[in-house]
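Course assignment 3, question 2. Fill in each field.
Student: A.L.
Task: Predict the tertiary structure for the chain below.
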Amino acid sequence: MASPSFVPSADRPARLVVLVSGSGTNLQALLDASAADPEGFGARVVAVGADRDGTVGLERARQAGLPTFVCKVKDHDDREAWDRALTDAVASHEPDLVVSAGFMKIVGKEFLARFDGRCINTHPALLPSFPGAHGVRDALAYGARVTGCTVHFVDDGVDTGPIIAQGAVQVRQEDDEAALHERIKEVERALLVEVVGRLARNGYRIEGRKVVIP
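Answer field:
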């Protein structure tokens, strides 16, 4: 089987579909980077999807004039039906890359088969340490002195896909979960923009667990 890869087009920026569940600050960072210099950045957001109505992330997309879609689990008979619907909704916008930017749902087999090696996620910890929904809380509880964020490809595990890049954040003595998470988010936004831009401009291939960017 060929390794997942992406080769950028010489004629246009890479097409991004971004998935959100909340405030969409990572989405905004991508929108700002694309708007400031679409050719230099190498990518543009073409649609934004969510798993719930009324999110700030969706409103950010609408203010940017982008098409949006909502795919709720409760509107489908089971998770497999939801996964098929999400896959079709994303695929209808013909993305080169999909960015899970605070999307709080685990995608299924059909989504992974359709977008294998093309779906990027961020996580607020230095994987493989502290995967799952409470990475910041878990790092604090463990007594970690350094944590951070990870940008990685999505696979069929929970935060187990090939790592693209990581950013470190020192844990301060006075940190609580909210304060630490806020500093991680600042690093995360910059790292996500850098990584998406590099992948879109240069292309990449995935060899086992190694992501090779020319």
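Instructor remarks: The domain at 13-205 is CATH 3.40.50.170 (Rossmann fold). Helices lie at 25-36, 38-41, 56-63, 79-91, 109-114, 135-142, 177-202.
Grade: pending
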